[in-house]
């Protein structure tokens, strides 16, 4: 069964964006995954197609109305058990483990917030899982949704030319990825580490692991602390 992605947004023209190109685009053409961009505004009932209102209690900005968004979700998710994600800077950080869990399912529904946010009542009533792609604020949930879908689609079976390439990347196994090199052997006075051209595959794997540990310790001590002792060496 093909992976089905539904994105609820005020800007459906932003999709599939970069996912229409390269490996993801080819996989879409082959029918390995599909994308449906749903216009939230279509579910407004007034003549102005209003989707937002002022925050209760006062304050700046506007808030997406729960009744409009709920109708969009209910119509999209009839008899549907796909996870429902809400892109939000206050959500739990997206991890590679969560990406793999989502990729193992039939698909995902992603709600893209705008303005100051989404009425809390619809988040609770429709079981939206708040997800963050980083400790920063975007103009809307659409770029974040594309990031989530990119991470998922690339590890769907058969999307990458070599499925093993997804097993030796940053965050797979709790460590950052080791450095990469390719020909020419010497470039601007810099040589490829000799171990990589030695033909000793055991030594090469050991070097790569040690480099992954070193980089993780230096650049992401938070990841290093969480990694299993056997991975840290």
Automatic annotation (TrEMBL):
Example GO molecular function: tRNA (guanine(37)-N1)-methyltransferase activity
E.C. number(s) listed in UniProt: 2.1.1.228
The reaction(s) this protein catalyses: guanosine(37) in tRNA + S-adenosyl-L-methionine = N(1)-methylguanosine(37) in tRNA + S-adenosyl-L-homocysteine + H(+)
Location(s) in or outside the cell: Cytoplasm
A biological process from GO: methylation
Principal cellular location given in the protein's record: cytoplasm
Domain tRNA methyltransferase TRMD/TRM10-type: 4-225
Keywords on record: Cytoplasm, Methyltransferase, S-adenosyl-L-methionine, Transferase, tRNA processing
InterPro entries hit by this protein: Alpha/beta_knot_MTases, tRNA_m1G_MeTrfase_C_sf, tRNA_m1G_MeTrfase_TrmD, tRNA_m1G_MTases_N, tRNA_MeTrfase_TRMD/TRM10
Positions with a binding annotation for S-adenosyl-L-methionine: 113, 133-138
HAMAP family cross-referenced by the UniProt entry: TrmD
Main function: Specifically methylates guanosine-37 in various tRNAs.
UniProt xrefs under NCBIfam families: PRK00026.1 (NF000648), trmD (TIGR00088)
UniProt family annotation: Belongs to the RNA methyltransferase TrmD family.
Subunit structure: Homodimer.
Official protein name in the record: tRNA (guanine-N(1)-)-methyltransferase
Source organism of this protein record: Rhizobium croatiense
Lineage: Bacteria, Pseudomonadati, Pseudomonadota, Alphaproteobacteria, Hyphomicrobiales
């Amino acid at each position: 069964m093909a992976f089905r992605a539904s994105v609820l947004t005020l800007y459906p023209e932003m999709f599939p964006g970069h996912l229409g190109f390269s490996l993801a685009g080819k996989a879409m053409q082959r029918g390995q995954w599909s994308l449906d961009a749903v216009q939230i505004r279509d579910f407004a009932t007034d003549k102005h197609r209003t989707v937002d209102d002022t925050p209760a209690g006062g304050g700046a900005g506007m808030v997406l109305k729960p009744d409009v968004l709920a109708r969009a979700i209910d119509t999209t998710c009839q008899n549907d058990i796909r996870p429902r994600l809400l892109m939000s800077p206050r959500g739990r950080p997206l991890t590679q483990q969560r990406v793999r869990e989502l990729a193992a399912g039939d698909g995902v529904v992603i709600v893209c917030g705008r303005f100051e946010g989404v009425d809390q009542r619809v988040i609770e009533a429709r079981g939206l899982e708040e997800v963050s792609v980083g400790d920063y604020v975007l103009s809307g949930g659409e770029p974040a949704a594309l990031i989530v879908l990119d991470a998922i689609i690339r590890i769907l079976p058969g999307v990458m030319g070599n499925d093993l390439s997804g097993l030796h990347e940053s965050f797979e196994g709790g460590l950052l990825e080791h450095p990469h090199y390719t020909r020419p052997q010497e470039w601007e006075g810099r040589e490829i580490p000799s171990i990589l051209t030695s033909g000793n595959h055991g030594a090469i794997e050991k070097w790569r692991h040690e480099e992954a540990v070193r980089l993780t310790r230096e650049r992401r001590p938070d990841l290093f602390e969480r990694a299993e002792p056997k991975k840290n060496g």
